[in-house]
Amino acid sequence: MTEHADESNGGGEHGMTRRQLVRHSAWFGGAVVLSVVAGEVISHIPGSASAAPASSADLHFVQVSDSHIGFQGPANMDVAGTFGMAVNQVNSLGFRPAFVMHSGDLTHLSTPAQFDQVKQMMSQLDTDRVFTVPGEHDSIGDNGPRAYRQAFGQDTLGDGWYSFDTHGVHFIALVNTLHLEQLGHLGNDQIDFVRKDIAGLSSDTPIVIFSHIPLFAMYPTWGWGTDDAVQLLSMFRRFSSVTCLNGHVHQLFSKTEGNITFHSARPTCYPFPKPGQGPAPLPQVLPAGRLKDALGIRTVNYWQGNHALAIKDEKLA
Amino acid sequence: MDMNANSSAPVRRSRTVCLAAVAVVGALGLLSGCGGSSHPKPAGALSPGVGQTLPGFPGASGTSGTVAVSPPSAAPSTPYTSGQPSAPAAANAVTIRNFAFSPAALTVKAGTTVTWTNTDPDAHTVTSKQGSGGPLNSAPLTTGATYSYTFTAPGTYPYFCTIHPFMVATVEVTP
């Protein structure tokens, strides 16, 4: 729980030593590797010896986020190009992920053409299956939610939520970008779905929850939080390992509250400022050549045995 | 970092015991550990939640080292404009800047056409607050795009941006 004091306060790059940051940045996209070991998801910085021997018992999956296909602006003049690079990166990992989850803001303006383009691009991912949750940019206006559901919502429940299982891990994909009320919002129907969904699960089942907007109050002033998340998360107190993976904030951030750890992912489009830096979450224009440092993918490995290099982001209670 | 992690390994190892049963189940999934080659994938690797059907869609087959990035299937969207092409710098204009409506409280006489102009690098909407029954309902406004609405009836019109719902403002229409 407290293996690494430097990382224990979470906060992405905030919590790193200079040496870690150098290693971190040297890796393309600066992905953080998360590993589910003994029922817990742990994260570490990719290093030379971090690759565990592949085994059929291992679970590898990938999270990508915030591609904003259709965005046009100086923060990223080619969002399709950088998302294509992310797709290439996933396909070059050296292992074939069981699935890829895109955690929202696939598109910038929810148009059918943008949904079609991002779906075509994700169909290039070399993986068993591609999952998505919608971002608020995929939920614009009256037609946005409909267009998203037509492109990605088949076989989902309610407004697009669902769950699935693999390798003994239970995954839940949530929608908190419809019915926004200042912050992200889940709604009672969805919370009831989760209550029934987890009712039969053993308390030592590792849980991974995907949502676009963070389920913790990262920075409510900029809408970075979900107003009824506490209702949801209170149902997970009995589980020994709960990991919430979100997008939306366009930067790495980790936080632990009790048995629940939150990890915000990097985008594939452009970064946002750190919370409260500047007037608003404006797309950040970086110096030439620096954009890729702020973008990335996230791989998550679940394996048994070799986890010597694993470092867990955990706040000291 | 490595040393710390190594020193903690025995602690973790003791916890992997409870994972063994989980891993056996995982082995049935038979996830191929390296490279994408054999298809179709064995069934059962991913199973939907109770009473559900697995959503999402299958990924690519084959070992694609490169990905052809297809061009947009539609022409890039041109900036949305509506109503008056130029917003006069008068008390009937609202500028969207830094994720805020300025002025946040605007008062106009009935019959006035108000024009919103988005100067942000991100998209915004001008949308009447849910439950207010108001008439404002813009398309997403990209950078430089404008939206206009003519208020005919006196009253208070609260509105927000549906993409960034923390952006709220009001138009007060007097007789």
Automatic annotation (TrEMBL), chain A:
Pfam families documented for this protein: Metallophos
Extent of the signal sequence: none
Native organism: Kitasatospora kifunensis (Streptomyces kifunensis)
Bilayer-crossing regions: none
Domain Calcineurin-like phosphoesterase: 60-251
GO MF, one annotated term: hydrolase activity
SUPFAM superfamilies (alphabetical): Metallo-dependent phosphatases (SSF56300)
Protein name: Calcineurin-like phosphoesterase domain-containing protein
Classification via PROSITE patterns: TAT (PS51318)
